[in-house]
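sry for the spam today, last one i promise. struct tokens for design, 502 residues
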């Protein structure tokens, strides 16, 4: 059938903008949950009697389930239908949140977080692939993905703010319960207004070996980086996890090249444009996540800010992200080649990070941190919008779910690597600094001052590595991605979508 026959009329889905509201709300829930619980963790740990050694599982259980099952979730969205997967994901996420909020033991909490990750892995690729098949007009697509990108990028910072407010003024349990009304509204709204193109499902038999290999491989990889942060890179179990991940993921690639109905069709990732986006964004997220963690600790530990105050300190980044994604990105996307827009965004973010390398104990928030966060948000906002759009550009409708899952997977793996790698660099630099600068004997205030100086020096050193990663991401995107201006000639490569129906 010809491409023309598949094109949906401009008014085929008059409620697509209403649908975007509910899709964006669902994405906000998923992104919020990656950070909102972090602020509440000390209070939850005390109430539930979770040991210091086990508290990491509140974060790790979510990351492992979410990162490990994303490809499977994307494939299920293609198989079941994206609307159905989207609604099921929201309902399941709400139920898991209720379980977490009502938890009376650490084990229940860990299980609830894992369930949130499972349903998040179904929900996230379904949401992004719905946008890919509903918004086919180039300019509308740019606006829609701009809004989606702003939420995807700024949601983490909002999570810190909301987590701090709920924990400080209500109770840590509300960091879970707050998801429930949002999820119900998003599910009900999506059920009514979301329309999915007919005939866009991938009804091929499920690739069971691919599911097993990809899930175990990604879980082993994510857990390896998580364990490296707490137990060191030379730990025997850490090395075993990385070795196992390498073997499993190589076996996955070989399997996908041979089976008739692969979980991840290699055509999705071997396309130079999509492959360049996945790789460059994953590397950029390594830099962003690590820096994000450092700033949180800098504000609370070094500057002594409360969780609520430190959360609000991230608002300039949210503002920059919003402007970059919804104003600058959509306007430039029709005038500049997408690779130049992404590369420029990476470099603007790197400029913000350069300001953070100047941090000292007595640095002013207004003169250093605020402009750095604004530039960081602006740059990533400019990048996320075209990246989210290019991740599904030109892909066959039947592969939209798994292509969407890949962009989420690159972010999850990049986040795990960034947190572990940059934190390890910062910690080792801090240790060396303290050993070299502390006097003997030294008073307690002197020891405290040197310790804080060492912490800040460790952060700024690691941020230099993050800048290097953003430069590398820029080189990758400029070398591999070549799609022109997506508002004009790039429009010819958009996903072909059939007429929209219930």
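last one done:
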């Amino acid at each position: 059938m010809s491409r023309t026959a598949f094109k949906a009329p401009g008014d085929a889905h008059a409620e697509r903008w209403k649908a975007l509201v509910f899709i964006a709300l669902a994405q906000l829930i998923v992104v919020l949950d990656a950070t909102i619980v972090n602020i509440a963790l000390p209070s939850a740990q005390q109430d539930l009697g979770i040991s210091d050694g086990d508290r990491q599982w509140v974060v790790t259980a979510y990351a492992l389930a979410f990162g490990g099952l994303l490809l499977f979730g994307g494939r299920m969205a293609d198989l079941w239908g994206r609307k159905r997967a989207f609604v099921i994901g929201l309902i399941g996420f709400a139920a898991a949140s209720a379980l977490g909020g009502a938890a009376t033991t650490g084990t229940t909490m860990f299980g609830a977080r894992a369930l949130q990750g499972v349903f998040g892995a179904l929900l996230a690729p379904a949401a992004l692939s719905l946008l890919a098949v509903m918004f086919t007009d180039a300019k509308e697509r740019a606006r829609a993905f701009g809004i989606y990108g702003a939420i995807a990028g700024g949601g983490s910072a909002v999570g810190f703010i909301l987590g701090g407010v709920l924990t400080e003024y209500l109770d840590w349990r509300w960091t879970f319960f707050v998801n429930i009304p949002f999820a119900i509204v998003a599910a009900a709204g999506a059920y009514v207004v979301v329309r999915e193109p007919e005939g866009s499902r991938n009804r091929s038999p499920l690739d069971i070996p691919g599911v097993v290999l990809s899930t175990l491989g990604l879980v082993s990889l994510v857990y390896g980086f998580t364990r490296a942060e707490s137990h060191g890179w030379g730990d025997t179990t850490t090395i075993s996890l990385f070795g196992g991940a390498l073997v499993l993921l190589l076996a996955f690639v070989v399997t996908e090249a041979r089976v008739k109905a692969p979980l991840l069709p290699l055509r999705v990732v071997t396309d130079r444009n999509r492959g360049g986006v996945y790789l460059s964004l994953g590397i950029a997220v390594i830099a962003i996540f690590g820096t994000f963690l450092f700033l949180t600790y800098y504000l609370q530990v070094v500057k002594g800010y409360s969780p609520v105050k430190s959360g609000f300190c991230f608002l300039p980044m949210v503002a920059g992200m919003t402007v970059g994604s919804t104003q600058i990105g959509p306007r430039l996307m029709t005038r500049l080649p997408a690779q130049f827009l992404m590369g420029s965004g990476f470099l603007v973010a790197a400029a913000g990070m350069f300001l953070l390398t100047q941090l000292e104990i007595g640095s002013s928030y207004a003169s250093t941190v605020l402009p750095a966060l604004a530039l960081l948000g602006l740059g990533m906002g400019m990048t996320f919008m075209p990246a989210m759009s290019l991740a599904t550009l030109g892909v066959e409708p039947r592969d939209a779910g798994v292509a969407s899952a890949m962009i989420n997977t690159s972010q999850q793996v990049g986040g795990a690597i960034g947190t572990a790698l940059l934190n390890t660099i910062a910690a080792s630099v801090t240790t060396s600094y303290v050993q070299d600068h502390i006097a003997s004997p030294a008073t307690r205030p002197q020891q405290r001052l040197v310790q804080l100086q060492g912490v800040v020096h460790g952060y700024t050193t690691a941020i230099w590595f993050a800048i290097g990663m953003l430069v590398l991401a820029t080189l990758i995107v400029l070398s591999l991605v070549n799609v022109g201006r997506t508002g004009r000639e790039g429009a010819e490569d958009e996903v072909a979508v059939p007429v929209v129906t219930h």
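The mean pLDDT is 81. ok im logging off now
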